[in-house]
Design a protein that fits this description.
Layout: H1 10-19, E1 28-32, E2 45-46, E3 56-57, E4 61-64, E5 78-85, E6 100-104, E7 116-119, E8 123-127, E9 130-133, E10 143-144, E11 155-157, H2 165-173, E12 178-182, E13 186-192, E14 196-197, E15 208-209, H3 212-223, E16 226-233, H4 237-250, E17 253-257, H5 268-275, E18 278-283, E19 294-298, E20 301-306, H6 310-328, E21 339-344, E22 348-349, E23 356-365, E24 368-373, H7 382-385, E25 389-393, E26 399-400, E27 405-410
Parallel strand pairs: 5-6, 13-16, 13-17, 14-15, 17-20, 21-24
Antiparallel strand pairs: 1-12, 2-11, 3-10, 4-6, 4-7, 5-9, 8-9, 18-19, 19-20, 21-27, 22-26, 23-24, 23-25, 25-27
């Protein structure tokens, strides 16, 4: 009976397999931007225009000159003459002067010579041509200025960036309708064991349905790869070697399910050694479940031998197979998870009584994950593009403080 190699830590196992494939990448293809979700950009993209392309209102209300609202209050409102309405979707020729206002809508242009917008909630209509303003506005308030979101030559996406919904919206807003992205890695899944039958079968006593093919296939798809189930193979060396050899011709990653332990029936190590150099990289990880995991490399194809236990297989596949898939796609962050803890790098003020969600940029600093708030107006999509996740400020809090541990919900 063979023995396990010296156990390595899960981190060392991850580093080992990722470092062994740094020069191995899948090809590039061009896809339509709306179809690029979850794909990895294979080149950097820069803006050729500004966004927004004009000064626009972020609220429904009235275009005004801020100085005409100074001192306004409920008890002492400022009265303004309404001289017209700014139409949506077209350039306006309407210009306001001292003491005047123009009806303005969210997303629409401002009237000429206006420098702010007073929200409709802080006005009262006196008659068809007059409003009273009950709260002053500052210059630029409730206005998104031309180029405030993105300017010409600003980097929109960097190579290695995983495309998210907000990226698709931002790219579409700039007229970028096609992207160069990594192809999806093909992952061969080979299930082994005399006791296995297909999941669609009615197993006899002593037999079990092959669950791992389906769970690992789903995980592969979730990670952005293409699952290629090869089939179920009995514990016969020649059969398993033939299956792996054939899979190497068309697939980018070879995954064996079961056969990774140390009994005479566990053949994965022998098969991996026969596929080519360097062969076995590690056999055994200090993890429960998943100790007998095998990592290998042959013909520039990563090899992963998963335990047959469905829970162990899924745990290890999540730990190792997902990052390998992402790394082959040139993902610059192959190890990020859906939810992580991080240290806040700046105070986040908030108003008690409401729940705030603030985008943050994550950065690994000497092994410590820092979350830096990406502040910006709520309607600027690039505050999301520039961030990696979002944190919640509880409703009963007056804010979060620098150095505090926060939970980041990854996009």
């Amino acid at each position: 009976m063979s023995e396990l190699l010296k156990l390595i830590t899960p981190k060392d196992a991850t580093d080992l397999i990722l470092n062994s494939i740094t020069e191995i990448k899948v090809g590039t293809e061009k896809v339509k931007t709306p179809e690029s979700l979850g794909r990895v950009a294979r080149k950097s993209y820069r803006s050729e225009s500004i966004l927004p392309s004009f000064d626009k209102s972020s609220v429904d209300g009235f275009s005004v000159r801020a100085q005409d609202t100074f001192g306004a209050s409920d008890s002492l409102p400022q009265y303004l003459k309404v001289v017209g309405e700014v139409p949506m979707g077209q350039e306006t020729e309407l210009i306001i002067s001292e003491g005047q206002a123009a009806t303005t809508y969210t997303g629409g242009m401002l009237a000429g010579d206006a420098d702010s917008v007073v929200m409709i909630e802080y006005t009262n209509r006196i008659d068809a041509n007059t409003i009273e303003v009950t709260k002053p506005v500052a210059k630029g308030e409730n206005v998104v200025f031309a180029g405030e979101d993105v300017k010409p030559l600003d980097e929109i996406l960097s190579s290695g960036h995983t495309i998210r919904p907000q990226d698709i919206g931002a790219l579409s807003a700039l007229g970028i309708n096609e992207l160069h992205v990594s192809q999806k890695p093909k992952v061969a899944i080979i299930s082994t064991g005399d006791e296995l039958v297909s999941a669609e079968s009615d197993p006899k006593l002593g037999q079990i349905r092959d669950l791992n093919t389906h769970t690992i296939s789903a995980l592969v798809a979730q990670a952005g790869g293409i699952a290629c189930p090869i089939g179920i193979f009995k514990d016969e060396y020649e059969l398993q070697l033939s299956a792996a050899t054939n899979a190497m011709q068309d697939c980018d990653i070879i995954v064996f399910s079961a056969g990774s332990s140390v009994s005479n029936r566990d053949l994965t190590v022998k098969v991996f050694k026969a596929l080519g150099k360097p062969g076995i990289l590690a056999h055994g990880i200090a993890i429960k479940p998943g100790k007998p995991t095998i990592l290998g490399l042959a013909q520039n194809k990563p090899l992963i031998g998963l335990p047959g236990n469905p829970v162990s297989a899924l745990v290890v596949a999540d730990l190792l197979l997902k990052p390998v898939i992402r790394a082959l796609m040139d993902d610059i962050n192959p190890l990020f998870r859906n939810q992580v803890s991080a240290f806040l790098t700046a105070d986040i003020p908030s108003r008690s009584g409401r729940e705030d969600y603030v985008p943050v940029k994550l950065e690994d600093t000497a092994g410590v994950l820092d979350a830096t708030p990406v502040f910006g107006k709520s309607n600027l999509i690039f505050t999301l593009v520039k961030s990696d996740g979002i944190i919640r400020v509880p409703a009963d809090s007056a804010g979060l403080y620098k150095g505090q541990t926060v939970t980041v919900r990854m996009y």
